[in-house]
Specification:
The protein is of the alpha/beta class and 196 residues long. The chain has a single domain, classed as Rossmann fold. It is built from ten helices and four strands; from the N terminus they run E-H-E-H-H-H-H-H-E-H-E-H-H-H. Helix 5 packs across helix 6 and helix 8 packs parallel to helix 10. The longest helix has 20 residues. The radius of gyration is 17 Å and the shape is globular. The protein starts with a strand and ends in a 13-residue tail after the last helix.
Length: 196
Amino acid sequence: MTLLLLDTNAYLRIAKRVKPLLGVAFGQKDYQLTILEDVEREFQRSPRLQINFPWFQDGALQSERLAKRFRLSRDDREQLDAAASVLRGWVIGNASQYRSPPSPVDCRVLAFGQLKQAIVVTDDLAMHKLGEEFGIATMHGHDLLRRMLAAKMVSKADVRGIYRALEANSDLPATWEKDRDTYFPRLFCREDDDPG
């Protein structure tokens, strides 16, 4: 099994349209998606996220998150806190290297990836940079979507729907847009761009 840990934004970009999402094995590498309880806390602390993603409180999604999020033992939590502290110290000491430095929650997510050999799914370029500096595997959300499509966990219509929703909400990451035609050739009909 290859564990894929979604950061908050990666979860928010796909969870509404891919059900079930967490804990479902897919692909040749037997990928399995999970989240940390930090996603829940980050959402609860952010009025902006609560306004932009009211569906997050949907009962079925809450149940899925509660049932399928990764459970940490006391030892795991201690190791995670220590590893996150090292990452956070690095970020603070090298803040000028980042346009927008990774947050404490971002450091915890990456620390989990490091401790559990999980791949962290994030579209935050600063998290990719920090992950690279510490040898922590990361993947963009559109790369995850491509793997889900190849494994038939999502349909072509699902992929188009996710892209369109992100565009409509002005939440389409630049990497998703840049790699769209490379990752999903012939999936997006360019006639939509034709004004006539």
